[in-house]
Design a protein that fits this description.
Order of helices and strands: HHHHHHHHH
Number of helices: 9
Strand content: under 5%
Largest sheet: none
CATH superfamily of the largest domain: Cytochrome c-like domain
Structural class: mainly alpha
CATH class of the largest domain: Mainly Alpha
Shape: globular
CATH topology of the largest domain: Cytochrome Bc1 Complex, Chain D, domain 2
CATH architecture of the largest domain: Orthogonal Bundle
Low-confidence stretches: 4-35
Distance between the termini: 66 Å
């Protein structure tokens, strides 16, 4: 056992010595990763962790897509969310004023990992004390919900 301990100490010591000669860029990248919660990239910090890997640009409003989203909201989200007031979860009427569209989509489709690793989602979990359950949304369903939230906020519609 003593021989193993000595070997382990030697390996750790050698690794630490070997890390000292790296470039400033490598050291900065390591510091950036360790400084943020969960080792997230800059993209993930801004846009969340999930299947949507590129920023979503919202085009012209789509009323038909929003109507699909409203039906999904009433079916899957309304039990925990209201548009204009705190409920089991946060109000969603102005969510796009606080988060990027990509973040909202990733939160809808990947709530478990988001609440485990993303600092904003972790803070919401700490505040509301209710984890967002996965609704097994497709990208298309999440996009319809996003369009509903976008248009409902502009209309002042409150459920």
């Amino acid at each position: 056992m003593n021989r193993r301990t000595n070997l382990l100490v030697f390996v750790v010591f050698a690794a630490l010595l070997g890390c000292g000669g790296g470039s400033d860029n490598a050291a900065q990248a390591a510091a950036d990763t360790s400084a943020n919660d969960g080792g997230l990239s800059a993209f993930e910090l801004e846009h969340g962790i999930g299947p949507v890997k590129t920023p979503v640009e919202l085009g012209e409003p789509d009323a038909a897509l929003a109507a699909e989203g409203e039906a999904l909201f009433n079916l899957k989200c309304m039990a925990c969310h209201k548009l204009d007031e705190r409920y089991i979860g946060p109000p969603l009427g102005n969510v796009l004023d606080r988060r990027t569209p990509t973040y909202v989509l990733n939160m809808m489709m990947n709530p478990t990992e988001m609440t485990q690793r993303h600092p904003e989602a972790k803070a919401l979990l700490a505040e509301y004390l209710a984890p967002m359950p996965s609704q097994d949304l497709t990208v298309e369903e999440a996009r319809a919900l996003l369009e509903y939230l976008r248009l409902a906020a502009n209309d002042g519609d409150a459920n």
